[in-house]
Amino acid sequence: MKQASLVLFLLGAACAVPAPPPGGPNDRIAPRLIATLPDSLGAYPDWKGDVVFQFDEVVSEGGSPNFGFGTGDLEKLLIVSPSPGVPVVKWKRSRITVRPREGWRPNTVYRIELLPGLADLSSNRSRNGRIINFTTGAQIPTTTLRGLVVDWTTQRPQRYGLVEAVLLPDSLAYRTLADSLGRFVLGPIPPGEYLVYGVIDQNNDRVRQSRENFDSMRVTPGRDSVGELWTFKHDSVGPRLSSTVSQDSLSIALTFTQQLNPYQRLPADSVSVRLLPDSLPVPVLAILPKGLFDSTYAPVRSSDTAKARADSIRARTDSIRNDSLAKAREAAAIRIAGTQRRATRLVDTTGTGPLRTKPPLFDKLFVRVAEPLRPGSRYILVVKGIQNANRASANPLAVFLVPEVKPPVVDSTKPKPDSTTAPPKPR
């Protein structure tokens, strides 16, 4: 009986969750890091132990345990480089210990990064991180890489994008995360030539996967600027057609399964359109993205209508500009005693808006033919040499039907005019 009670007591103690003592003031201060082991920027050739982060209070272990899959709450907050996998992370009340799963390598520069977001038992989260750099016999590093991770699909900086710098030819990978504006600073790391990747880490495992959107840049020795890494989906197979629709009697809209190379401009003879079943060729005038297509083949207005529209727009613009200038002069003339004049607003340089360094990606093209498409007929279309965003090419083919033009529906219930009634006599 006593033995059973002891087992139950031990099980209850093992399952207990630390909690702050009742009473007293509420804790609103995030945990503060007070010590690390080992010291940063030191050389420890015989280092075999764990790296330790010591805090001034008990920290939270999180709701997701650390099983080595990268999904644990503490595992997500620690990045060990160079290490190919998820590190071994242990929670010890006010301490967190970490080491690479494969063990420490000799003569290697290590970078241990604790990311912001560590919480205490009152759910106060730290906004600051810490980086520990040390070596197991190699020279103390001095190289730092800087750059920007961009999502090419949205043309905006990628928040907290994964950055991986692979040292060549050793293939040692050093990793970090970009900040909320997509900018990153990775260092200090060993000198040499690097292949730097910017990745949209979709599963948040801090490891670059081939299916994730990424971009890469080779950085020569002595250079610290990586520049912009425009991430996009890479596919070794060229694009295929997902839909082919006739826009009007002379236009065909093509939608592809992948985003296309925005720098590629296909000539008209790269598209073949034939009328089935006799395979009669249909002359093609152009194949263009939407913007160029609309500007090239926009409906032609009469000169009088176009001139009147331009005059109307010009008059409205001049009126708005004059009103704005008048209000600005009135506001500038008002000066409250004892106050300073407002400083001129600076141009936004945070990089949070769309970037124009590269053209936007798209997955649609429009074909213009020289003769009207026949309603109710089938056509076969082939595009030769179309490339996706990473320049893998293909020759996609599709068969599409031009819908028949339906006659207008006549309402038979509407009363018809009486033709028997005599017209009124003229006075």
Offer a quick outline of the entry.
By secondary structure, the protein is mainly beta. The chain contains 3 helices and 26 strands.
Written account of the structure:
Helix content is 12%, strand content 32%. Strand 11 (162-168) and strand 12 (172-177) form a beta hairpin. The model is unreliable at 1-17 and 335-351 (pLDDT under 50). The protein has 3 helices and 26 strands. The strands form 7 sheets. A 4-stranded antiparallel β-sheet has the order 1-3-6-5, with no helix packed on it. A 4-stranded mixed β-sheet has the order 2-8-7-4, with no helix packed on it. Strands 9, 10, 13 and 16 form a 4-stranded mixed β-sheet that branches. By secondary structure, the protein is mostly beta strands. The longest helix is centred in the C-terminal third of the chain and has 31 residues, at 303-333. The protein is elongated and about 115 Å long. It has helices at 2-14, 290-296, 303-333, and strands at 33-37, 42-43, 51-55, 78-81, 88-92, 95-99, 109-114, 130-135, 143-151, 156-157, 162-168, 172-177, 183-189, 193-199, 214-219, 225-231, 241-248, 251-256, 271-275, 280-282, 284-288, 364-369, 378-383, 386-387, 393-394, 397-401.
Q: Total number of helical segments? A: 3
Q: What's the mean pLDDT score? A: 85
Task: Please trace the helix and strand order, writing H or E for each element.
Answer: HEEEEEEEEEEEEEEEEEEEEEHHEEEEE
Strand order in the sheet with the most strands: 1-3-6-5
Structural class: mainly beta
| Gyration radius over CA | 33 Å
The total beta strand count reads 26
